[in-house]
Structures are given as C-alpha cells and as structure tokens.
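README: folding subset

This subset contains proteins for which both the sequence and a predicted structure token string are available. Records are stored as plain text. Below is the entry for GrpB family protein (192 residues), shown exactly as it appears on disk.
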Amino acid sequence: MSAKGPAATRQTPSMTDAESLARAIHERVMLVPYDPAWPGRFAAERARLLGRFADALRGVVHIGSTAVPGLPAKPVIDIMAGVDSLAVADALMAPLLEAGYVTSAEFNAALTDRRWLMRHAAGHRTHHLHLVVHDGQLWRQRLAFRDTLRADPALAERYALLKAELAARHPDDREAYTRAKGEFVRAVLART
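--- output ---
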C-alpha cells in the first residue's frame, strides 16, 4: 500500500503515519460488539466524500457488518461509492489518495469489478472504500446482502456466529477470513 499527500488522519505522538499504515495493513481480524456510533462515522465520511467528489459519485452507502444494527464486526466502516464506470474509479484514485486514503496497486490490479481504498488512524483501519459501478451487479448484491441481514435477525445471528468462528480460525489472514464467508454470502444472495 502506498500513501500520498498529507497524513490520512491524526496519529498518536509516538507513531508516524508510515508506522500507523504498517500496523493497519497487518491488523488482526478482531470482532467487537455492535457500536451505535458506526452509522455516525459513516455519515461523516459520506459527507466528506460527497463534499469533495459529488460530481463523480452517484451514491455513497454504508455496507458490511457495521451497517447492520446489532451485528458484531471488525470496527471498520465499509463504504460503497457508485461510479459510472471503473475508468471513473481509476481516475478517482489519485484524488482519493490526496484526500487521505491509501491503497494497494497490486491488490486493485487483481480486482475486476471494483476498486478498494482504506483510511487508517493510530495503527488501525477506520474505513474501507469500495468504488463500484452504480446499480451494477456488485452494487445490487452488496445492498441485497445488507438489507437481508437487517430484515432477518435470526439470519444475522447465524452470520455473527460464523464470523466469530472464522475470526478465531483466521486471525492473521484477512483474505482467508473474507473468502471463508463466501459460501454464506452466496447462499443469502440466492434467496433474494
């Protein structure tokens, strides 16, 4: 991952931005109980993004587990921002880096349906930003998954139990943790 421009966020006096980034990149998978402050953290970042990129973004929504009331989650706000095309997403990368995000060119090169960026503070991830084609397949799937969990507390509880099991199994491998949730996510989407 590379960081450009001013520091993404305030750091503790003893930690440089580079040290914070290195710790955030290698942060363990740890779930915490739902925090009612998460929607406010999303709203603040949404307003910041729209204040800078309103002409390019066709929608900015809260996704992921922090968007489901009551669901334990990694304390990272997942944001999905809609764009007209991945070419628009690619054009936004440099301005987003200047706005305090960081990213991995290698990771993004492997993505065919989105672009990914992250914000961090004091060695912890704070936000993940997913740039996707507005109202495209991925956009609709992620909203459907979120909305299904919001509407079905029993299903959300099953997901919480799975996430806890997977976080214990893959505490140092975020990619393995995410891949292991795939079957559950596909089964939920098949119902919608």
